[in-house]
Design a protein that fits this description.
Layout (H helix, E strand, L loop, with lengths): L3 H32 L14 H21 L4 H18 L6 H25 L5 H8 L5 H14 L3 H7 L29 H13 L18 H8 L37 E2 L23 H4 L6 H10 L6 H14 L7 H8 L3 E2 L2 E2 L9 H13 L11 H13 L6 H13 L3 H16 L11 H15 L9 H9 L12 H14 L6 H13 L19 H18 L3 E2 L3
Antiparallel strand pairs: 1-4, 2-3
Helix pairs in contact: 1-2, 1-4, 1-6, 2-3, 2-11, 12-14, 12-22, 14-16, 15-16, 16-18, 17-18, 18-20, 20-21, 20-22
Amino acid sequence: MEDRLTILTEFSSLMKNDIVDYYKRSHLYLRDLVSYKNINLEINASTQSENVIETTLNMILKAIKTGLNTLGVSISKLSKIQTDYLNEINKKGVEISNYNSYLDIYLNEYVNKILFEILIEYLLDLDVKKIESLKLFKLVSSSFIGKLSQFKNIHLISNKTKEFIAYPDIEEYLNISDLSIKVETTNKNPKKIDISIMNDEKKTYKSEEGEIDTLDILKQLEKAKKDSIKTLETPKMEVSKPSLEPLEQLNSDEGHQKIIQEVKPTTPITPKIDYVTDEKAEIFLDYIGNLPPVNAEIITRFKINTVNLLNSRVVNPDFLDLENLFYYISIIKMLGIEFPFTSLEIMEILKNYVSGMVFSTSRNDSPDPICIYYGLAILTELDLIHRTNIINLHGIEEFLKNELKTFIPEKLKLNYHTLLSFKLLAKNEILFARRERLLPQILSLDLLNLEEFNPTLDIFHHLGSFKILDRNFDLSQFNVVYINELKKHLTPKGSVNELITESAKMLLILNLLNVQNQESLLCNRLLNFIIDSTDYFNIENHNKDFNWRIDKLAYKVELKMLFWALLACSQYTNSNF
């Protein structure tokens, strides 16, 4: 059997460069999060008061805590090392020149240990999810993970050899920062390490992940002008060099591989549309509240910077109002990415949008059906709707019933979300009891002659309301007139008004009308447009003063575009890759 020194020497020799690179990438990722807090790390801390220093350090540590928690490290563990660090700083009473020095100490002496422990947990099969998160964030390369797996399969085949690298005892023999062997300790008789204890500790960390920091959320976004929305939704065809350099500048051993990599298309999409042309054909409304992942082959066609998307909750947590949180959660579900929030974090955000135990735009505003829909959809997606005390489901039901008593067919958007909310409450019997009264009112609506008629939006809500009330309602009577109306707004590029959300909604309208087979060419053009016309959550943006990274409205539009694009694509498959 191999001895401890042999295994540790082999581990150091094989992994040193990769682990040092992993540390560098992780430090850059965490420093990027700190930079979003607008902290000048070069300020001379000795010229500031103790209160200012303490406040600034807490801001730095909170940014790092959130970043590491996103990777899967428990809040309890992060809180402990943060406390240890602050106690050590205070105990030594050392005057440090600037905040950059404070940060260096924390990263090198404390964070590196956590980063290293993630690798050990993977090698000992205690936790593989964190490695997947590291890979997603491009903090480790596939080749490095392969080397770790190979080392595990060759050297760690018995409990005895596993004990040699178990954490934290490995620190007695190996310098965590530079992977050098501590020669003076290699001849010591090691104490017995029970691997099961590490498993138990790991379970404890998992059970404590509910400990969270309260997120401060601003009130609902101010009403934006229609022309501003249209400007924002126009695809970003021309981009300029970003003022903030992303993580992708750091080179790896794999031929300067980018840390943040976006999936770029190589061939045009040709969806295979396999729909049964009867009333049982699936429609997107069937999945509201339980959105499935979009077809993986179609996802690869999108240009989405998933790291920027995930980090957006950390960079600007107060951008996550109720609507934005709905989009964010739905997008994560449709991309098939592991959810980065805890249940308690979700509740901390949601309770800011509850008035009288009913969802609203803020704690001080009256409830409304659209907010109710967003809130119920979030809870339903995360299977929390019957596991929270911040809302009263009966109160919500009664509020929605009152909305139906004063039903006005022309209020298309409001009606659509009211009906969808009943669906999320699993109160189909309420809809069934009222559909004999509501369907004729909706059917009698002269939609095309409405004042301020919005073709895509109004047709979408009109048809959707029919299908929510009666899943088998025959919409074929609208096929010709509605499709012809929508085609008036098609551009040569195959879009609706050059807007991604409107193009996506037209695809969903075709889904509701069950005419994808008849309109397959149109579907192809619309799909190509919403997938290929923009880079979602790209750090590069032609408008430096107004983009998703620094402006709440721009962030809302970025989320909204991606949500509708993914929802539309969820109804299609691709067999031509």
